[in-house]
Amino acid sequence: MQTQLISFVIPCYRSAGSVALVIQEIRDVVAQRAEFDYEVIAVNDCSPDNVLEVLIEEARQDKKVKVIDLAKNGGRHNALMAGYHVARGKYVVCLDDDCQCPMDRFWDLLRPVEEGLADVSMAKYVGKRQQSGIKNLGSLFNDIGATWLLEKPRDLHFSNFAVMRDYIREEVVRYKNPYPYVTGLMYRASARVVNVEMEDRERTIGQGNYTLRKSIALLTNVFTSFSVKPLRLASMVGVVCAGVGFLYLLFTVIWKLTHPLVTAGYSSLLSVILFVGGMIMLMLGVIGEYVGRIYICINSAPQFVVRRTYNVEEREEEPSRQEVSV
After folding, report:
1. Cα 209 to the center of its chain, rounded Å
2. Among candidates 87, 51, 95, 57, which has minimal Cα distance to 69?
3. What pTM value is reported for the model?
4. Are the CB atoms for 22 and 106 separated by under 8 Å?
5. Does an H or E element contain 68, and which?
6. Which of these, 101, 104, 67, lies nearest to 86 by C-alpha position?
7. What angle do CA 9, 99, 141 make, to 5 degrees?
């Protein structure tokens, strides 16, 4: 029986105390089925702790552990793209570095993709999630944004624990711009995406790195990288504001004609000016965000910059990145 390779891609940030446990759990789980082999691609996202030293030691002991050391922190999705560029497996898995992804349910997650029922399988966590209120709020807004912009089914949930086929990975890495949204790229490549329900784990090591700023940045990526709907919404809001302004003008004229002794109110006039001015600035901000990202893309800003790698073979394809040294 031919052995099938599974690539596990782990973006690492402030996880010196947990990432080795994640890698060992991957070894233990894959060992349960002899027809599979594994490679672990751990991406150090310029972590301020000693996670790189931990990963290098893992790579020295196990040649199946490959380490990519990034020169600058770019966020989870950029780190995932760095890992996807070197993944060679028939199945490519993304998971977190904090032991919260339930690897004991991995074979359940793989089954729909292995059996050809789906191209992408994602964990859907049931029950109470073990995360902060800010992360829950950010996840809610991101889910609403993906539903509206990507036309994602409402009952489909995106998560950090997912499996995809190799041809989906190949399509994902075709994205060359510096603002990747990996989950959206998966769904754009194939509509055959399913959820597998499972319980997530409570964090026992370290603290979460998810912040409100990161949530807003991710939501901005969703809004500006995959759809022009925000621009269309801006146009609709402009039409509505113009219509409201015209109706208010008619009301003011009629009111003045029927009540000639009434002086026009300063407060109402100021309110209209502030409202219309605020909407104009908002729409200009949306347009400016698009223009700014176009400008950055034209200047060929890299998704990531690799400082060095360990146990990584050269691939024929050229990723959208810059490499300092290997």
Report:
1. 14
2. 51
3. 0.76
4. no
5. strand 65-70
6. 67
7. 75
